[in-house]
Amino acid sequence: MTARLFVVDDDPDHLDSLCDLLAAAGHEPVPFAGARAAIDAAAGDAPSLVLTDLRMPGLDGIGLLMEVAERGLDLPVILLTGHGDVDHAVRAMRAGAEDFLEKPYDAEHLLSVVERTLKTARLKAEVARLQHRLEPEEDLIGDSRALDEVRRRLADLAAVDIDVVLVGETGTGKELAARILHRRSPRRDGRFVAVNCASLPDVGADAVLFGATPAEGAGGLVGEARGGTLYLDHIDTLALALQPKLLRVLEARRDDPEAAFRVVASASRPLTQAMAEGAFREDLYYRIAGYVLPLPPLRDIASDIPALFAHFVRAAAARHGREAPAADFRERRALQAHHWPGNAHELRLAAERYVLGLARPGAGTAAARPGGGVPGEQTLRDLVADFESREIARVLDQCNGNTDRAARLLGIPRRTLNDKIARSPLLRGR
Ligand SMILES: Nc1ncnc2c1ncn2[C@@H]1O[C@H](COP(=O)(O)OP(=O)(O)OP(=O)(O)O)[C@@H](O)[C@H]1O
């Protein structure tokens, strides 16, 4: 199977002959005279393997290995060492080299080491992919009507080939929803590649996104999403300079169904707003906004908060090796009364503090909800009385204040109704 390999050597003759050997074996070698250039290119469009000389001026083979590890690049590296360079070879293996070959090496032997390394890397990727598919499916927690609606929409959208924009405040589960879309879509064999547009570097974002060699089409992170899902988080912050290129790549998807991928983009504000401010291109919007799905903030689905909190409590308890405490009625009410500007992120932290015994759920939060009062202090009796008063007020309105008819409709004696009216501050002044 043809593989793209980076070959690094400061000796041009040796570099040429190595590349010829690899090309003759059916691979696609990319030559580099220095380690630095190879690493920068790998960060944009990773090859299947790097074959590098150990001793080079500037960054040497060990330095290259260390940078690969530091940048979290999952790249097998084979080192070519000088004869008798045992110390360096040992250091290289410790630094994470896949293998090393002593010069002068036998061409056959080099090719067999390359093939073996490529095979191991493919197997590792396959195992990771299968493991991912075996992981328990994370689903949206909550059964409020709004969340049910989101769930239904996600199921409909997953089945069809359409790009989706998810709009919601931070922590409203946009990434979770995007992963659900990916998992349930016909393209789930491809990868789910998440790109946080807000944390792309100022310099070099182009290569990270599209690859270092634009002539070859989309490489980089966009290339990795081929056949899968490209999740563009915080797309409203994508630099204007990168937007036309993204548009071109998305348009090119149509020409090559094999390379096609679904775009799921997310934003914390409507993209139409970013467009009106001139921060987002209209043509790109109309390319990706196949369907715009809003995700509700926690304060709008307060009935779901206790279940989500319990989920985070269980996760935090497992992580810290503690018992999972259960919030009591008052605590659950306090949680529901909070404004939760950080939504699930904030709720997760509250759960962690609760598990560690650092704070009660909702402690110091009730007043944070605008106009929310202090429901955390209410008892069940208060809540029932509150509900009863509202129901009586509704029926009284319906009967134009006629207590006889209202008592009949409510199924209680008129005297009882009058008593309740006299005792309720809400009803007394009516
Ligand atoms: N309804 C939900 N059910 C289960 N887990 C949820 C739910 N909502 C959010 N989460 C969890 O809360 C965490 C934060 O959610 P997520 O990262 O999806 O939010 P986001 O909207 O993408 O946030 P940001 O805007 O900050 O990127 C994740 O671990 C996610 O799995």
Automatic annotation (TrEMBL):
**Species per Swiss-Prot/TrEMBL record:** Wenxinia marina DSM 24838
Chain positions with 4-aspartylphosphate modification: 53
- The domain of life is Bacteria
Q: Which SMART domains match?
A: AAA, REC
Lineage, highest ranks first: Bacteria, Pseudomonadati, Pseudomonadota, Alphaproteobacteria, Rhodobacterales
Query: What is this protein called in UniProt?
Result: Response regulator
Q: Which InterPro entries match?
A: AAA+_ATPase, AAA_lid_NorR, CheY-like_superfamily, Homeodomain-like_sf, HTH_Fis, P-loop_NTPase, Sig_transdc_resp-reg_receiver, Sigma_54_int
Please give the start and end residues of each transmembrane region. none
* Gene3D superfamilies assigned: 1.10.8.60, 3.40.50.2300, Homeodomain-like, P-loop containing nucleotide triphosphate hydrolases
One GO BP annotation of this record: regulation of DNA-templated transcription
